[in-house]
Amino acid sequence: MKQRRIAVQEAEVPDIDIDVQMWDELPDEQLGVADDLGWAAIHHAAQKGVLHIIERAVAYNNQLLEQKTVDVAAVTPLLLAVQVNTSSTLRRTLRNIP
Questions:
Q1: What does the angle CA 56 – CA 26 – CA 5 come to, to the nearest 5 degrees?
Q2: Which of 11, 43, 59, 61 sits at 20 to 30 Å (Cα–Cα) from 93?
Q3: Quick check: is 55 in a domain?
Q4: How many structural domains does the chain have?
């Protein structure tokens, strides 16, 4: 199976199991709160294909799909979903574009 490359180094992305538990506990309004590199829970969820977190964030504020990181990559959750190309995540993410 061909591996997909994305602009983000693996070291920047914590263990998905820990993230999902942490994200599930966050109030909706905090799913778009970014760290000093501009990465928020919605960015990590889009990169990992964690659909229910993306849906929660977008239901709260659909503009979060276009929230750019402030690192060199300057990626949005939508772009991450495209790069990862998880078909169900991408399809359902695209439905939420205003």
A1: 65
A2: 11
A3: yes
A4: 1
